[in-house]
Amino acid sequence: MTKIISRAVILAGLEHLRPEPLRRALLRRLQDRRPFRVPLGAEEAPPVAEVRRSARALLLDGGDLLLFRRTVPGRRPYWTTPGGRIEPGDADLEATLRQEVFEELGATGGPAVQVFAARQTTGGITRVQHFFACRLGEMDLARRTGAEFFEPGRGTYEVDRVPFTVEGVGSIELIPEELCDYLNGNIPAVIRLLDLVSAGSLPDDTDRGLSGRAGPGRCG
After folding, report:
1. Three-state SS for 71?
2. Rg, the chain, Cα only
3. Is the pTM here over 0.85, yes or no?
4. Measuring CA to CA, which residue among 171, 190, 64, 176 is closest to residue 117?
5. Where are the beta strands (DSSP E) in the chain?
């Protein structure tokens, strides 16, 4: 559907009309002395957001999930998964994942499979976090090199282990909340999928991303 904007309305409001591409188009139409038709809703179309992607690890050590217990001045402790933003030159998200796990934990992991993604848009920036499940290979915290561990203003990053169960995950404030909701309904499925991947028995045509369902309640 379209609507016709009268010439009088255009002349009255042209100086303050936004966005700028629409104002310029109206000026051209005025010069041609033709009616200007605008698709309904086009005037309010939001700008395209910048997208920033990161890869994060649901890193299992036996029956425990390895996390960072974050302590930041001014708020109560919360827990996050290891991982970070994809950088130019990274081959793909899994390459980012393995690099970040090594930098932050001095750790390596086994076969990885993406199971979830969380999207948040604030300030014109869309952040997409891709969560991969994998099992811990080896870890030596003395090898970690992440710059954030040497910046006192960013608080502390204490490596913590939480039982990878609904009860264990529900006992902490795990962020983002979308991840907590997802795990509440999908922990057994994630474990089964990891077992298949580790055994090399996952069919080639299997969709490795678990859409899953959100479980009830929040963490913490």
Report:
1. strand
2. 24
3. no
4. 176
5. 2-5, 36-39, 50-61, 64-71, 78-80, 83-85, 107-109, 113-122, 125-139, 156-163
